[in-house]
């Protein structure tokens, strides 16, 4: 009985000593998520991780920074798409104006030719102007869309960058709160518990 008790005590001591060499799981930020040992945490798990760092709750700060970063990315993507759409609209408006001016000039010249050469030129000029004006509302709408799109795109960049930095700092704060680990040049000792024949008979053998 005494030998069994001694073996159990040694086992507890050895396990405790081995645990001191275990490397704590460090966190890594990937976009709006956190990875630990290559495993991506859910939003709930990430909030829980941030809820107790050296006794402080940073979950609200994490959630806020994550939300603003997501909003910034949406503004960058959405603003770019709107600006591109606006540019296409301006092109369509310009083509409409050019086509309208050409068709109007031809039609005006044809109708005005009845009143002579001077009348034909005047009619062609007036009709061409009306045709060109047809594309102006389209061009103006496209320019407005481009302006709004560029504004949203530009505003989203600092919003994304600033909150990305905040999230990285929170992850760093978590990693700094982890207990110190052994240097990589000193690997953790291996421990093995086996059952079999020993010098004193049959029993447990702990090797570490």
Q: Explain this structure to me?
A:
The protein has about 210 residues and is mainly alpha-helical. The protein has one domain. The chain is built from five helices and five strands. Strands 1-2-3 form a three-stranded antiparallel beta sheet, covered by helices on one side. Strands 4-5 form a two-stranded antiparallel ribbon. A hairpin with a 2-residue loop joins strand 1 and strand 2. Helix 3 packs antiparallel against helix 5. The protein is rod-shaped. The two termini are about 25 Å apart.
Output the number of helix runs: 5
Order of helices and strands: HEEEHHHHEE
Segments where pLDDT lies below 50 for 5+ residues? 5-22, 182-186
Largest sheet, order of strands side by side? 1-2-3
Rounded to the nearest angstrom, the distance between the terminal CA atoms is 23 Å
Largest sheet, if any?
Answer: 3 strands, antiparallel
Q: Give the strand content.
A: 5-15%
Question: What would you call the shape?
Answer: rod-shaped
Number of strands: 5
| Rg from Cα | 37 Å
| Helical content class | 55-70%
Structural class: mainly alpha
Count of spatially separate domains: 1
Summed over residues and divided by their number, the pLDDT gives a mean of: 75
